[in-house]
Design brief:
- The chain is of the alpha/beta class.
- The protein has three domains: about 5-260, ANL, N-terminal domain (Rossmann fold, 3-Layer(aba) Sandwich); about 275-415, Rossmann fold (3-Layer(aba) Sandwich), CATH 3.40.50; about 420-535, GMP Synthetase, Chain A, domain 3, CATH 3.30.300.30.
- Helix content is about 30%, strand content about 25%.
- The protein contains 15 helices and 26 strands.
- The strands form eight sheets. The chain has a five-stranded mixed beta sheet with strand order 13-14-15-16-17.
- Strand 15 (about 315-320) and strand 16 form a beta hairpin.
- This is AMP-binding enzyme.
- One of its GO terms (molecular function) is medium-chain fatty acid-CoA ligase activity.
- Belongs to the ATP-dependent AMP-binding enzyme family.
- InterPro entries: AMP-dep_synth/lig_dom (IPR000873), ANL_N_sf (IPR042099).
């Protein structure tokens, strides 16, 4: 069955409830006053039907057939993006979604469309100057107010769809072989997202409508699929002015718009926690949440302890573009944070693998790391499309976990966080463990850091905390203090894992990051700072 069958019923069922609160903040003097306009389920359904009728007529004239792929390039900043995306699906087409991150990759659009046999391309007028090279029929996306009202009866029924059929195509925020990877989402995947993944991740609540912030761009899978996973139980999405919204906007969402649940990347959450340490208002608002879930990377250990001490209802979740939300910590057991369990109803597995820390450690089994791969079998509801899977029987996500007690696991980094390092004789090095220790022991000195050294000696790159930003010009004292604090931890490491004075201080924000999550890209650091690394190694 087509995944939108249940979605359309939910939109009609909750027609009077607010579905989307559009950010309409205005400038007052030198400050921005946050404000929102509420859009109901019923209004969204009407906009959706009208846009679907428009695109069915327009794309039919361009010769696009039912169930063919249509590229859609949105900014990811507007309510209308969510209308046109689902309207294309309602009209019987398969949207291939491009967002603002593609602006620097415009020439790749033809290639990405070709891979998925795209037949047409529609775009926000913002990109008018960027689409001249597109080699399929194109059309600009009209304003919603200019689209004629069309009775739903003229749309006809949804097309027939099997579980494994593709419903929509997104792209990863990172690149593979120099280009974003397209990730088709099937009807089975989207139904699992709305019926299993999302409901299983949220444990707080008092029966009132759940209101969430949006997680970044409406052109990326997390927020673009919000209509699908919020509508079954009548939940609401509040648009933020920017992904890492500030404390004033957070308070306004709580007080004016009923924000009571948050989903944040860890780095965004840390910014709010920093304010909450000195602001009783922000701390109380955080405590009032039903649930705050963070993802993307580990929370700073000091922040993780503090939120538990302060009674802030926090849970960590594990999710990927390919698999949606898969694991969550227990909200009622904060002392177990950041250990996570599988969401109930998930048919996924953690498969034991063994990583030896070095060739020397082969004689010392006690030093081996017992880690687990996250495996999604092909019959699981959230198993990626066959074109994305990396095993004949399913998909390994590439993330590693350590079991803390039966059925509970902590994230131990990407498989590529375990790199071979050293002087000639190479051994495995857990770069994430070193980075976590730097953040723990040097939290007042270091804003962020990354360890590199693939097939080379380990080097630590550091972005200093704001109070030490000037250390970029004269880093000797900062380096010495970092190395002093790392001394006890480094003494426990094998020779090939030790920094041994190789610390590079760089300006805050200068390390290359992923667009959406803001995670530092290890390989890109090695490429961008190749000259400095060569000097160190020589």
């Amino acid at each position: 069955m087509h995944f939108m069958h249940d979605l359309l019923e939910s939109l009609a069922k909750h027609s009077n409830r607010p579905l989307f609160k559009r950010y309409t903040g205005s400038i007052a003097g030198s400050t921005t006053v946050p404000s929102w306009t509420s859009i109901s389920y019923g209004t969204y359904l009407n906009d959706l039907n009208n846009a679907a009728a428009y695109w069915k007529c327009h794309l039919d004239r361009l010769g696009v057939q039912e169930n063919e792929v249509v590229g859609i390039w949105v900014t990811g900043l507007h309510y209308a993006d969510l209308v046109h995306l689902y309207a294309l699906i309602r009209a019987g087409f398969i949207p291939q979604v491009f967002n603002l991150a593609m602006l620097s990759k415009g020439p790749m659009i033809n290639e990405l469309l070709h891979v998925r046999a795209g037949k047409a391309f529609i775009y926000d007028k913002y990109y008018a100057a960027e689409v001249q090279h597109v080699r399929v029929p194109t059309a600009v996306i009209p304003e919603l107010s200019s689209i004629p009202v069309t009775p739903p009866s003229q749309l006809g029924s949804l097309p027939q769809a099997q579980d494994e059929d593709v419903a929509v195509i997104f792209h990863t925020t990172g690149t593979t072989s120099g280009r974003p990877k397209s990730v088709p989402q099937t009807h089975k995947w989207l139904k699992c997202q709305s019926q299993v993944n999302w409901p299983g991740a949220w444990q707080g609540g008092d029966g009132s409508q759940k209101c969430f912030n949006n997680l970044g761009s409406f052109g990326s899978v997390g927020s673009a699929t919000a209509i699908n996973y919020l509508s079954p139980t009548g939940q609401c999405l509040i648009q933020t002015s920017k992904p890492d919204f500030d404390a004033d906007e957070f308070l306004a969402m709580v007080r004016k718009e009923g924000l009571n649940n948050m989903l944040l990347f860890a780095s965004w959450f840390s910014k709010l926690l920093k304010v909450a340490r000195t602001s009783p208002e922000v701390l109380e608002a955080l405590r009032s949440m039903q649930q705050i879930s963070y993802t993307g990377e580990a929370l700073n250990p000091d922040d993780a302890r503090w939120v538990v001490e302060q009674g802030i209802p926090v849970a960590v979740i594990y999710a990927t573009t390919e698999t949606a939300i898969c694991m969550v910590s227990d909200l009622k057991d904060p002392g177990n944070l950041p250990s996570m369990r599988l969401i109930e109803g998930m048919n996924c597995k953690l498969l034991l693998r063994r990583i030896s820390a070095s060739s020397e450690a082969a004689e010392d089994p006690g030093h081996d790391e017992h880690l687990f791969d996250f495996f999604v079998p092909e019959d699981a509801g959230n198993c990626p499309h066959s074109s994305v899977r990396n095993r004949p029987d399913g998909h390994i996500t590439g993330d590693l976990f350590e079991e803390t007690r039966p059925g509970y696991y902590i994230f131990r980094g990407r498989s590529d966080d375990w790199i071979r390092t050293g002087h000639g004789r190479l051994g495995f090095c857990d770069t994430k463990a070193i980075e976590d220790n730097v953040k723990l022991t040097c939290s007042d000195l270091v804003q962020n850091c990354v360890v590199v050294g693939n097939a080379k000696p380990v080097v630590l790159f550091v972005e200093p905390a704001s109070a030490f930003a000037e250390s970029v010009r004269n880093p000797i004292e900062l380096k010495a203090e970092i190395l002093k604090r790392l001394g006890p931890f480094e003494a426990s490491l094998y020779a090939h894992e030790r920094i041994e004075g190789r610390v590079v201080i760089v300006p805050p924000g200068s390390l290359p990051r992923t667009k959406e999550k803001g995670n530092i890209r290890r390989k890109a650091v090695e490429e961008d700072f190749a000259g400095i690394l060569e000097e160190i190694y020589s």
